[in-house]
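Structure ticket #2291
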Amino acid sequence: MSDVFGINEKKDKVKNLIRKLNEGAPLEEVKKEFEREIGEITPDQLSKVEEELIKDGVPVDELHRLCDVHIAIMRESLEKSRPKDLDISHPVRILMDEHEKLLGFAAELKKMIESGEMDRERLNALIDFFKESETHYLREENVLFPLLEKHGITQPPAIMWTERDKIRKLKKNLYMIAERKEYKISEELKITSIQLFELLSSHFYKENNILFPTALKVISEDEWNVIKRDFKEIGYCSFTPVSESVEAPEEVSTEKGIVDGWVELETGRFRIGELEAILNSLPVDITFVDASDEVRYFNQSKERVFARTKAVIGRKVQQCHPQKSIHVVNKIIDDFKNNRRESADFWIDMNGRLIYIRYFPVRDREGNYLGVIEVTQDITEIKNLKGEKRLLD
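Resolution: structure written out below.
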């Protein structure tokens, strides 16, 4: 494998510097050694070095903990690669502009709290902006990070994701404080506003100077077009500059159907056996009735609520219900076919269990009616859920 990123000559030196930092060597001393021994390192090289260090056995937690420190010794070198002159519609430019806005909101919050004069209306507005910012993180986590990982860049996104958890925890704490509607500034609010500003400053610096330059290096133009489309689908914040004028490129049609043993779909693909197993593993009963009102499919979930046999395939759905219910079945289907209804819900008590039955129209991209899907689920235990469960027993 060729040394595209210049890793082989730098990996051991960087690894040695990180080891020295971990052992307590002064930052300035290590920084001078970096300048003398390495000189410059680009963001994509640093990303690859981190990948190699993990492969060589450096614990992930140690690398994460030292991230701020080893960035400090490479700061001047990294900042030379900071993205510049990007078009306003480029995904990286949009993310960086949002960084600037969010950091400004955090600075304003911190200044307000430190001044001792709370403007409750402005505080609520800032909180709304922070709540909106979740779409910023979702775009990165669900679109940009997966593409970076496909190109072998896994550690920078992992570090960012770890920091996101801390950011979200601070934001949640801020929201809880604000919900108390106290009109005095508490010590807790002071500490939260300071920590949020400092963490966002550090987090956005890493993204602007390491993550984004690396992305620009490894992601192709075609992939950026896909990112634009996916960003648009997830949505922007109200404070996103030029968000309304960002046009997503037209979607390129892809081949669908059975290709080389794969069921090719718009958002992924399965082996036929995998697809069937997935449908049978769902904790719901599914029955599909096509546009001709014929039963076309049902899954075989482990705890089926209503009996189904293969003899039902091809049968008119009206023949699968008692005479007294046919008018209801016809009404639902007619409403679906004529776009008068998007769902029909029923729930019944069956042997002491609460059974939830839902019907949904199935339509293609153009809105043409393809049929109806029935989803049945035993929700007895679900109905009794309370509080939260965040850890696996």
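Closing remark: The beta strands are 257-259, 262-265, 268-271, 285-290, 295-298, 344-350, 353-363, 369-378.
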